[in-house]
Amino acid sequence: MASLKDISKNTPTLAQIANVIKRTAVKLAPKDTGNLKRQLDTYNRPSGMVKSVVNGGVISYSFEIDVSPPGAEYGKWWNDPTVSRTVKGKPEVNFASRAINSPEVKGMIDKLVNETASDIADMVAKELQSL
After folding, report:
1. Residues 78 and 92 sit within 8 Å (Cβ to Cβ)
2. Is the pTM of this model over 0.85?
């Protein structure tokens, strides 16, 4: 049986964070563009949304969501309010940016970073004790 510490830890994965971004973007996409919502949901997958870069021993991760997937190319007009006057000022614009910057996503990223840092600190402490 899992301990209370194990249950409360429940560190989110990068794939889980990507899925929350996708679900939030789909939810924030304009209601009158059902095809855009469908295409956002089916086209964006965690494997394509999570990007990693290794530079000088430092690994960086980023999340990318295609706002105009094949079959719904007009999504770019809804995601950037400066591109078209027809959508300027509507509350639905910037759905991808709003999804990536949502409090839920930021909280998951913070938890992932904190738990990873804690795990690394524990590993270093154990190594130092064994010396």
Report:
1. yes
2. no
* Residues whose CB is less than 8 angstroms from the CB of residue 74 and which lie 6 or more positions away in sequence, other chains included: 33, 36, 68
DSSP strand pairing (50-55 vs 58-63): antiparallel
Q: Which residues are paired to 50 by β-bridges?
A: 63
| ∠ Cα 53 119 16 (to 5°) | 55
Start-to-end C-alpha separation, the chain = 33
Cα 26 to Cα 57: distance, rounded to the nearest angstrom = 35
The H or E element that residue 114 is part of is helix 103-129
In the predicted model, is pLDDT for residue 70 greater than 90?
Answer: yes
Beta strands per DSSP E along 73-126: none
What are the tokens at 77? 């007009």
Round to whole Å and give the CA distance between 107 and 100.
11
Nearest to residue 30, comparing CAs of 100, 77, 62, 82? 77
Which residue's entry shows tokens 């997958």? 45
Question: Could you tell me the CA-to-CA distances from 10 to 19, 79, 110, 114 in Å, in that order?
Answer: 16, 32, 13, 12
Say whether pLDDT at 7 is over 80: no
